[in-house]
Design goal:
This protein is α+β, with helices and mostly antiparallel strands. The chain has a domain of 129 residues. Helix content is 27%, strand content 13%. A four-stranded antiparallel sheet has the order 1-6-5-4. A two-stranded antiparallel ribbon has the order 2-3. It is globular and about 60 Å long.
């Protein structure tokens, strides 16, 4: 059987919403996209539920399903994907987080949760924090695309059952980062990780 080369493009999150200034069109509808238009004309287009009907697929779930994996069987957290994408080495027992560089004011309030989609100086920021130690735990920071950043915590007896500190897209400014909370039954591992995150927040305020 002859193998036919194919190009698979996943435009995750490009749907957007209508904007009044664009005549109630989305940015995608208003944009001049000759290459994408040609690809759509010569390729195959359709609508599909990558996971199952009625299930809103996250970035990770949707991508896994499109590549042929059952996202309910193969569960991968975004922190691990971000860290690997940043070229970071992951060891057994490590805990990986995905985060954003953000802009805070003097009161610790979020001004921009994506730091203006910063493009310059992120590698230097990551390097300045990489190797930081809190007690017997080491922190490694990797720079991703624009504002994205990966944090890998390495040490003994760690757990990963914590909530995130990002208040979310609905709170673009005027709020403080949320304090990470334990999501499952309190254990020694989770307690240690929670204490590390608390110390990290204090250290960040001193920079």
């Amino acid at each position: 059987m002859q193998r036919i080369p194919r190009l698979l493009l996943i435009f995750d999150g490009m749907g957007d919403r209508p904007i009044v200034e664009l005549g109630d069109k989305t940015p995608l509808q208003s944009a001049n996209l000759p290459v994408m238009d040609q690809l759509a004309l010569e390729g195959q287009c359709g609508v599909a539920d990558p996971v199952r009907s009625g299930t809103v697929a996250t970035t990770v779930m949707g991508t896994l399903a499109i590549l042929g994996y059952d996202p309910h069987r193969f569960s991968i957290a975004r922190g691990l994907i971000e860290a690997i994408g940043c070229g970071m080495k992951i060891m057994p027992g490590d805990v990986a987080f995905r985060g954003n560089w953000a802009t805070l004011d003097d009161e610790g309030m979020i001004v921009d949760r994506r730091a203006g989609r910063i493009r310059e100086g992120t590698k230097e920021l990551s390097s300045s924090l990489c190797g930081l130690k809190i007690d017997d735990v080491s922190l490694y920071v990797g720079s991703g695309t624009e504002h994205r950043v990966a944090l890998v915590i390495r040490g003994s007896g760690l757990g990963d059952c914590l909530s995130g500190s990002d208040p979310g897209d609905h709170f673009l400014s005027g709020k403080k980062p949320r304090h990470p909370e334990v999501l499952k039954k309190m254990t020694k591992k989770v307690c240690e990780l929670q204490n590390i995150c608390t110390c990290l927040n204090l250290r960040q305020e001193k920079f």
